[in-house]
Amino acid sequence: MTHRDVEQRLDAYVDGELPESGARELAAHLAECRDCTARHDALVALRSTIAAQAPYHRADAALRGRVRASLRAAAGGGQRPWLISWRPLAAAAMLAVVAVGGWQLSAARAARDLIAGDVLASHVRSLLGEHLTDVASTDQHTVKPWFNGRLDFSPPVSDFAGAGYPLLGGRIDYVGGRPVAALVYGRRRHFINVYLWPADRGATGGPSALTRQGYHLRHWTTPGFVYWIASDLGTAELDQFAVLLKSADVAAP
Amino acid sequence: MEPSDLARFEAAMLPHLDAAHNLARYLLRDDSAAADAVQDAYLRALRHFGGWRGGDARAWLLTIVRNVVRSSRAETGVEFDETLHSGDVADRDPAADLARRTARATLAAALEQLPQEFREVIVLRELEGLSYKEIADVTGVPVGTVMSRLSRGRERLRRALSDAAGAGA
Description:
The complex is a heterodimer. By secondary structure, chain A is α+β, with helices and mostly antiparallel strands. In chain A, about 50% of the residues lie in helices and about 20% in strands. Chain A has a seven-stranded antiparallel beta sheet, sandwiched between helices. In chain A, helix 1 crosses helix 2 (about 20-30), helix 1 (about 5-15) runs parallel beside helix 3 (about 35-55) and helix 2 crosses helix 3 (about 35-55). Chain B folds into two domains: about 5-70, RNA polymerase sigma factor, region 2, helix turn helix motif (Rna Polymerase Sigma Factor, Chain: A, Orthogonal Bundle); about 95-170, Arc Repressor Mutant, subunit A (Orthogonal Bundle). Chain B is about 70% helix and about 0% strand. Chain B contains nine helices and no strands. The longest helix of chain B is centred in the C-terminal third of the chain and has 26 residues, at about 145-170. Chain B is elongated, with a radius of gyration of 18 Å. Chain B starts with a helix and ends with a helix. Classes of the chains: A alpha+beta, B mainly alpha. At the A-B interface, helix 1, helix 3 and helix 4 of A face helix 1, helix 2, helix 3, helix 6 and helix 7 of B.
């Protein structure tokens, strides 16, 4: 592998976009080439500088209102009443299918879907409003005790700032008919909500991965806790985060 | 359009309003032009919502934002020349100017000074975390081009930052 080969592939390597064999080959070269290692380190440093310092231009409330108002106007103006008549029929047919199919859904599946709906609604609410956290702290030793006396269980709380997923805080939320612990993590300018509660009540079956309304949800159960996570992060990063959470749960006393 | 269709559209697309605005603002480098582009993009997305196949909502919306930005600029029709921008960085020396600013402002300024084709892949990769494939879809170029633009864009950025640090020392 020449320096030129490395140069051309180093970005794909740090982005995790090289196929496994290529990544292995490049890692082997880095292990014995000081120049290329320096390049690699400079690239990693640049990426973390951008992640930490590049401005993220959020939409303000005025733009949000303006966009919604113009969408409403456009949707109303585009109404074509003569096309509507078939829709109630289609909806009724659909309901009939759902009703029949509903009998065949296992209870666990139905419960899982209900909870997924709660998780999604809570995640969206937390992003739209001001109420992302009740306790805002990057310190797990502040967040964990905050739950004492507010919940009838003590959730494991870990910070993953070292891996690029800093803890931002926690809050109490309501999912599946019970109060649950919600932990909030950041990834660049994105948020991840983690919901957990004791596994002995309200177990909801095996691991699952859902995508709803553009958000990705992940669910699994450990011996101690039921986990749900929700985010608009890409699936690769969300799965990476899930691996971190699972290993922290195992390590928890 | 049915109210339920609008609700479905809003539920899928409004969560990505920040991402849409961020991209528009980086491409246009102007607050009010960015806000206009975002509004246009949402209206265009609503009209074409039937064509959305339920893939990644954010990538789909960002594709439209980018198209709106590019058409709103009444571009001169000059294609981005990959070879022209492949050489060394020093068109001019912004280092002395940059050195007076804080690190954060330095980075923001360096990003703004990148040619748009480099700036957009960096924003999509580093601030939105899109994969190379998704960036290729949003920008309409092959994955190999995404890779080389990212690499050259980062190299320019790195040099601009180290020049600024050198001038400040």
